[in-house]
Amino acid sequence: MNTKSKVVLGILGAAAAGVVIGLLIAPEKGSEMRKKLKKKASGWADEFSHLFVKGKEAAEDGIEELKEKGRHAKNTAEEKINKMKETLG
Fold this sequence. Notes:
It is a single chain. It contains two helices and no strands. It is mainly alpha-helical. The chain has one domain. Helix 1 runs antiparallel to helix 2 (30-88). It starts with a helix and ends with a helix. The mean pLDDT is 82.
């Protein structure tokens, strides 16, 4: 996990903790507070799911880019080896 992801998750966690604390100290009936917490938790789950999907897509893109660079490096090395064989052969 890169630094940017850690910062985003840290901010989300701090925001979530702040909202929960705010709801818990608010002077409301328990049933109303539970409804609000349930609604907020559902929203957070949706946001986290979206964030997870975006992170997974970014990781897959990064892996594919690394594979392509590896294939390119392999082809370049093979070309150089073949040229050396021709030169020496």
